[in-house]
Amino acid sequence: MSDASIMTNRRAKPDAPGPEPLTPLSMAILLALAEGDLHGYALLQEIERQTEGSLSPGTGTLYAALQRLAEGGMIIESPDLPAPDEDQRRRYYRITSAGRATAAAESRRMERVLRIARKRLATEGGA
Amino acid sequence: MTAYRRLQRLLPPSFRERNGEAMAETFETRLEATRGRGSMAVLALWAREAMDLARTAVRLRASGRRRRDPEAPGPEPRRVAKPSRGSVTGFLEDLATDVRVALRGLVRQPVFAVASVGTLALGIGGVTALWSMVYAVLLKPLPYWESPELIRVGYKLGVVAGDPWPSPVPYDVFQAWSERGRTVEELASIRVVGRTVEMERAERLPVALVSTNLLDMIGVKPVLGRMLLPEDGEGGTGTGLGSPVVLLSHAFWTSAYGRDPTVVGRSLLVAGQPWAGQGSVPHTIVGVLPPDLAWFDRPGLLAEQPELWVPRAHVLPSALAGAEWYWEADREVIARLKPGSSAPDVASDLGAIRKELLSAPAPEIPPEAFVDVAPVAAMAIGSLRDRVLLPFAAALLVLVLACLNVANLLLGRLPSRVGELSMRGALGAARSRLGRQLGTEALVLAGLAAAAGAALAAVAVWVTGAWAPPELVLLRSAKLDLVALGFCIALATAAALAFGLAPALTGSRAVHLARLRPGGSVGARTLGLKLRPALLAGELAIALAVVGSAALLVRSFARVASVEMGFRPEGALVASMTLPREGYQLQIPPRTAGGASGFQWLPARLRLAEELVERLERDPRVAHAAVSVRAPLRGGWYVQSMPVRLEGSDRAVVSQTWNVVTPGWFDAVGLPLLSGRDFRESDRHDWPDVVPVPQGQAWQGVAIVNETLAARFWPGEDAIGKRLRYGARETLEVVGVVADDRSRSVVGIVSNDRSRSFTLEPLPTLYTPLAQEVMPRGELWNYSAELHVFVRAADERRNASLAPLVRDAVRELDSRVAVHDAEPMDDVLARERSIPRFSLWVLTAFGALAWVIAAAGVFGVLAYLVGQRTHEIGVRLALGGQPGDVVGLVVRQVAGLAVIGLAVGVWGALAAGKLLEGWLYEVGPTDPLSLSVAVALLLAAAVAAGWLPIRWAASVDPATTLRMDA
């Protein structure tokens, strides 16, 4: 991970191979935003869709994660204002290039994990 | 949406300022989208969001102070394993943390904790306790008797086939063996008899009459004083055999003398030889025996331990030279093998000698058939081996059951653990560190179970020792076996570790996969789902096999215990009286007796008995009264070594018992007369008041036989009017047939020959009237100074109150006659049945243990199944599913498993029944009742154990379960 701030709370691990993994929620947010800017509720829906319902954070958890990612420079609040017919309190989020790089790094790491898993857990069919 | 805004106040102000508006908007949109799904869903969302806000608030505030990751869901920060620091302190700190976490985990999951720790403890405790008993009874070397060179040579009286009773050896055979046996180095003898000992008061104690070489032969060293010397003889007046001596058992030394070291050289009044007509004779105490010396003259350890050890002449006193049947001269024979000879050699050698001594030659019978040869240790253990090994096998199965149970419960935790461990792995915990955490948890679990199990075992052994019938000497001495405890704990710990570490194995691989999969932890769940139903079914199967076997044995033992005694002791009272010599016995001087001396009962004995009966029967409280020479259930009921012959035929029943009774005795003890008549007043010999009875005269008398004796001689025929010959000169006409007195058989279920298994064959029994007692010279039977009074109360509940009546009546007749041991026959009976009852109790306890463990297993598994499906159930309920459907869902799943498990278990129980066949009495190995009871019990356990989890399932709060998705 190039951006160490995400990992602020991770303990340094002497035997950890390679970059630190992202939390599932952070990863899901980054992936959701990779297709385009989204507001809070849309993000929630997209995350649930992406993870087939296994990840369904509460509103508080979502915003805490968003703030954490924003502080880490992975996302920013979109400067675009809500459409006139929308609730004006609504805010859109946009992924930064650092965020894309982090998500890409994370998916590479996951691929490695998957490869190993496919090899070792033959019964799982690697799915 | 003021409510949500109010909740937001929980959040740190900076966060609220920045995100509050947007969050409220998102929440409202979400709420709007949920409204369509009903009020329950709205409520659920509210609850979930409120919880989420609170959690987020806590995390944000915490990270504000400690820079924690606010988005980490899952485990609380304190559960995150710290990295090992490599130092001892670090290790210890980690260990303490792990133990704390493990304990907290158990407290947080009380169902799991109780089910796993509890059943494991039951398994450890039960198996250890039983093993301790097995060790004490079977495996602990028997002091002194253990040597393979020491064999017991029994006298197989059963030349008639089917005689299950090995018997002591008569004097003449013993002497011939000593002189002519080629295969034995040395022969010694022992016989335990009751003798009156006069201390402050007269007391009847078990006394071992031993040949003077016995104690040296088996290597006993005295605690005090000396052992016996060859010149120590039977002693006593008129025997010319030196001055009488006695050795004290350690127990008697302790109880009577308080371990007084100066006891050697003092004198003790012990009743002398009955055949010599002696009263109490002062015996000089020459030594004290070690505490571990024990003797078992009946198989199955059902032995009274001798308090005193008195020498018996190795050679028959000349006074008895002409006595053909002197039963107290019979003895248990212990032989030491010559080097190179074996037990079968001894059987043919000594058997051949006995065969030569037979008056009627029996060339067709091989010599081995005449003697019973077995290592002494095997005799002591007898078939108790069978009794204890079976419960032990059951115990092992129960231990396996407990381990399976724990495995099952640990696997049940797997899915949730994998989720947690993945998270912790993701948070940076090293795999080795997590493994250690899991190991610690398993060890904590096993440790708690071990502590509880050890306590349980200690209590069980203590209770068993305190409650076991006094006859089960070795069982009473059982101590908690630490090796067994160690073994059980090791096995339990291994099981806990193996299955406790499973999440580490699956978990560490699934750790990253898990989060990609819907449901989070599918890999682990698959493992659990595949294994656990199999384990549950296996548990039920094993439990059924154990419970089924226990049910079979319990039923069999219940049968044995409830075997009709043949008579009805309840409601009767028995009292024993000891007659003084003077006025009742006539000493026969050697010269008038033509070489044979002894004593004879005077007619005064008969008169005393008859007057007593008359007096008692006058009392309105008494329904029947009678006197006998021997008493059922009271000992002294030995196998007679005098054959009963069929007149005019060679056919004989060699081992039988004999009682001499007054008319009405069968009514008094409640032994039903099956055909013919009871004895009458007129069945009497007209004995002259002055003896001796002329020798050589043939006597006619009457007899009553029991069913078994009648069946031996006259199968399918009417026995009435048939004639028997008993002893040398007596012809008896059978006037009646009575039911078998099976009271001896009940104790006799213990046979030391496995191949025979249970035979409850009652002994052939002969009854003759007291008024026709034949006492010609030299035939010294019934020399016992005791008579037994039986009184049946008119109101049978008041039989105990008749004791003073008997005492007063006897005192009025002759104040010198001592009445002792007056007690209701019910009490005697209860004592007699204590041993079968004890076995029954042990077996029942075992079945119950298996049952409880199985129930706990089912309960634990079900609780987890329901727990795992809480979400699904919640959704179903939220979508309008009825609690009944949900219950049906769980019940169907459980019923499927139960059916599979029980089907396998029925097969197992049937197989176990086959193995048990040899130990079953009047119960088939496939006894449908036992099996159905076992199946019903387990089904009931499954239903009872499933009830609570199923209730939980039905009462799942959809709101709660939906919230768990967060």
- Give the strand content of chain B: 15-25%
| Largest interface: pair, residues per side | A-B, 48 and 52 residues
N-to-C span of chain A: 26 Å
Which structural category fits the helices and strands of chain A? mainly alpha
Which segments of chain A are poorly predicted (pLDDT under 50) over 5 or more consecutive residues?
1-19
Query: How many strands in all of chain A?
Result: 3
Average of pLDDT of chain B = 73
Mean pLDDT of chain A: 78
H/E element order of chain A: HEHHEEH
The secondary-structure class of chain B comes to alpha+beta
What's the end-to-end separation of chain B, in Å? Answer: 22 Å
Write up this protein:
- The complex is a heterodimer of chains A (127) and B (966).
- Chain A is mainly alpha-helical and 127 residues long.
- Chain A has helices at residues 24-34, 40-50, 59-71, 97-120; strands at residues 38-39, 75-77, 92-95.
- In chain A, 46% of the residues lie in helices and 7% in strands.
- The longest helix of chain A is centred in the C-terminal third of the chain and has 24 residues, at 97-120.
- With 966 residues, chain B is an alpha+beta fold.
- Chain B starts with a helix and ends with a helix.
- Chains A and B meet through helix 1, helix 2, helix 3 and helix 4 of A and helix 2, helix 3 and helix 15 of B.
